[in-house]
Amino acid sequence: MAPPSDPQDPGFGELRLFDQWVQEHHQQVYTFILRMIGNPEDAADLTQDALLQTFRTKSKVDPDSAGYVKWCYTIARNLAVDYRRKKRPRAAEDEELERAVDARTLRPEEVYEHRVKSAEVREELLALPEMYREVLLLRYQTEMSYEQIAEVLEVPVTTVETRIHRAKKMLRERLERRN
Questions:
Q1: pLDDT digits (tens, 9 = 90+) for 114-145
Q2: Pick from 16, 99, 138, 169: most CB atoms within 10 A?
Q3: CA 168 from centroid of its chain's CA atoms
Q4: 126, 163, 167 from 150: Cα distances, Å
């Protein structure tokens, strides 16, 4: 069955709204998955899968609600977890990660220093146990509240608080050992 292409078709408006939603959230979902798995090509595939599954299951959550974004991240997280279980991730290229993150205008020496530090943080973040890595990404990359993270991970808010505290401590210790 071909997708609706006639503006008079009731499904056409639904597809247009979803396309707009994808345009708004694609980059954030991609960056989240990329940082979970560390492989740009597979992250792109998983992002498309997550967005498609979100669209296919739109009847479970109102697409106009904040819950729809959380639902999408839940799907993205589950896909990333499954990926990591099945496949050992390959290292992501710096250029790909830089494209995924908003760039600032810096002097050349600042760019170099930023790249070195970013690479160290990414490496240590990927080395964290999954449950700690994902809470940091959801909190600081997607800027979700503790309550939203708890919903996505299906754990109590106190568990999210504890995991974030432990994850920050682990990451800080790992980075200090590098220096």
A1: 666 777 888 888 889 989 999 998 888 888 88
A2: 138
A3: 18
A4: 21, 11, 15
